[in-house]
Design a protein that fits this description.
The chain is mostly helical. The chain contains 3 helices and no strands. The relative contact order is 0.10.
């Protein structure tokens, strides 16, 4: 090797990991929001683990999983609604404006 780029360097012509992440975030901004919400819920529920009272550990973990998944599914649904709006309604409005 003439240059010590390391094993993680992308081949010539490809995006680096950070460039790819930023491009994907611009394409669908609600995915990182859903992931962040999922992580925030999981972190909060783990923080509140000591104050769960008489609830069994398995029930507490199931509730944590359900709420975290609800955040992720909610972000996916918002993304789908936004995409439908962008593709269908805006195009219909643009087509009507051209006539």
């Amino acid at each position: 090797m003439s240059a010590n780029k390391g094993w993680w360097a992308p081949p010539e012509g490809e995006d680096s990991v950070s460039e790819k992440f930023l491009r994907k975030t611009r394409e669908s901004p609600l995915v990182p929001i859903g992931l962040g919400g999922c992580l925030m819920v999981a972190a909060y529920r783990i923080y509140r683990l000591k104050a769960r009272g008489s609830t069994k550990m398995s029930i507490h973990l199931i509730h944590t999983r359900v709420v975290a998944q609800a955040c992720a599914v909610g972000a996916i649904m918002l993304g789908a609604v936004y995409t439908m709006y962008r593709d269908c309604i805006k195009r219909t409005a643009q087509d009507a404006g051209e006539k």
